[in-house]
Amino acid sequence: MSKLKLFAMLAFTMATSAQAHDRWILPTHFSVSAEDKVWIMADVTASNETFNVDKPMGSDRFTIIKPNGERSRPSSSYRGHRKSVVDIHLTEEGTYKLYLDSNVSYWTSYEISGKEGTQWLRNVSKANRADKLPKGAKNVTTLASQAQVMTFVTLNAPNDNYSLTNNGLELKPITHPSDIAQNEKAQLQLLFNGKPQQGVEVEIIKDGARYRNDLNALKVVSDNNGEISFTLADAGRYLLVAEFKKSLTHDALADEMGGQIFFTFEAVLN
Amino acid sequence: MIKAWVVLVFALIFTVQARGAEIELSINLAKQTGEYHNPYVAVWIEDDTGKSVRTLVLWREGAKWLKDIRTWWRKVGRRAPELVDSVTSATRPAGDYRLNFSTNDDNGEPLAQGNYTLKFEVVRENGGRAMIKQKFRLNGQAQSYDLQGTLETNPTTFSIKE
Question: Which Pfam families match (chain B) (predicted)?
């Protein structure tokens, strides 16, 4: 599938959260021990079946924040038909943030008689939509959206390398990601433009969705402090999906700002 | 003056008691069939807040496999490389090993009286894992606990001798 098609698909599904297309980075190891340096790998995919891969994506945007805060890139990558794969050399002790670098993208939606449902214009903001919209377009809205696809891996002792940007929807661990464990309460905070955000809807989906009838996603909503807490009974790998949309006033480019987070983590065995 | 003497004598008695207490632990690694790698073993003591105060045993191979002793690595080993070096010992085959320890913490200071948990993690490459937990109380009295068997360990005992 071409990037353009994939974008279009993601855009469509983004608008209807019930069909949201998940994306993730799944590392071979979340926690490693080594005397010196160690290699890990990670899969990158867009798929709706945690953690079975479906479509390749984003290895060109794959970014590593090393424990000392320096930015780095994978040593090599491969884009297959069902997933992208990257090699990552962990060369110093601490926690690495792995994520897909993404810009804000603008999506203008409208309705028009003769066509059923909501229509979408990609890369069309409030500033340039007048020229692109067909005559008679109704219910015109422009969404500025940004997605964070992310995970953390730790070599030996962890550190709080969360590298927040104070832009859009972000996730700030309270419980260190390498300390999320079976039957222990874990706490995370959702921020929007750097401030704690109440009302962010979060779903936590366990690995192995293909092999059970009930998806059994854990649903939580962030509280007054933007915090969520949960206790997982099973050790294993999980995908956390957070979504939030806010109306914008006096913004030249969009009417709404939307954020998504796709955070992969493991709950370790106790 | 008398008061001071009494305090001093009591302090001495308590110090002696704490220093005199001894932990006896039997590690009984079960025989397995088929491909067998010596298990990695960690035994440690947590205080009543869940913080590790003493690692008694670490039977291990190279650093790559430390992470597989999941709970001990997360809660203790990864933040304490010097401790790892000082308690490291080679892995051992199936069998019964009787070990004695002082009731000191990782720094060699006597553990205060109170509630603790003994944790005993056994991990075998290409095999299973066992996590045994036993609450106990250091209160100046001798005590003994039977630790139930697991797929990786035979039933053993853990006792405090005063």
Answer: DUF2271
Regarding the domain with residue range A3-104+143-267, which homologous superfamily does it belong to in the CATH classification?
A: Immunoglobulins (2.60.40.10)
Predicted local confidence at residue B17, as pLDDT: 46
Alpha-carbon gap, residue A85 to A64, rounded angstroms: 14
| CA separation for the pair A72, A75 (Å, rounded) | 9
Domain boundary assignment for chain A: 3-104+143-267, 105-142
Structural domain containing residue B19:
2-161
CB atoms B74 and A31 under 8 Å: yes
What is B90-123 written as a DSSP string?
----SEEEEEEEESB-TTSPBPPSEEEEEEEEEE
Number of C-beta neighbours around residue A132 at 10 A: 13
Contacts of A181 in chain B (CB under 8 A): 71, 74
* C-alpha dist (Å) from residue A37 to A65, B64, B87: 16, 10, 23
For chain A, give the longest Cα–Cα distance.
Answer: 66
Among candidates B66, B67, B71 on the partner chain, residue whose Cβ is nearest the Cβ of A270: B71
Determine contact, residues B78/A156, Cβ cutoff 8 Å. Answer: yes
CATH number of residue B126's parent domain: 2.60.40.4070
Query: Does B53 score more than 90 pLDDT?
Result: yes
Question: pLDDT for B90-118, tens place per residue?
Answer: 999 999 999 999 999 999 999 999 999 99
Domain count within chain B? 1
Do the chains contact at A158 and B67, CB–CB below 8 Å?
Answer: no
Q: Are A269 and B66 inside 8 Å of each other by CB?
A: no
Query: Is residue A157 within 8 angstroms of chain B, CB to CB?
Result: yes
Listed as ranges, residues in chain A with pLDDT below 70 are 1-20
